[in-house]
Amino acid sequence: MNNLLTDNPIALQALMNETLFSTGFAIDESQSNSFKEDSVINWDSSAEEFVYKGDKSTGVLFILRYPSFPYFSPAAEEAFIKTIGALQLTPQNVAIVNLANPQNPNDFKRIMTFFEPKKITLLGVEPASLKLPEIAHNSYMKGRVATVFNTFSFEEMFADVNKKKLFWGEFKTLIGA
Asked: Which one-letter DSSP state was computed for residue 42?
C-alpha cells in the first residue's frame, strides 16, 4: 500500500474494479487529518459570473452537476475527452459548467446570457432543475437561440451500454447539425 499515490476514496473507487475489505489496520491521527483535508473540494473561483472550463465563444456548452468534483470524476473526464475528440472537439474549444459549484447560478436565463450557446448538452442534469420543459432522455428541445440535448451522466452510461449507444447516436447528430 505504500506505492499508492492517493488515499482519496473517490479516486480509489474510480481506479479499482474489485471490492476491498479492511483487515482491521489502524490509521494514525496524522494520516486521518490529511485525508479529511484532501476530501474537501477546492472549487475554482472567478471574478466572472460563472466558473467554467474551456471556451464559451464556440457556442457548444456542456452542463453537468458533479457535487464531488470540480468538473468530472476521473473516469467521466476520460470518457468525455474521448467522446468529444471523436467529433474533433476538445475541452479547450467547448465550455463546461458544473452547476454543483456554489458560485454558478442555477438559472437557465443567466446561463444563456453568459454563455450565448447554440448547442447545449445536459449531462445528467434534469431539465426541470433549470425550469425547462420536460425533455426525454436523448431528446432535443429546439429554442429560438439554442438546441438543448438532454442525456445521461457518464456514470449512468458506464452502468448501461444501451444508454451509451443511445447517447452517441444522438450526440453525433447534435454536433453535426
From this structure: -
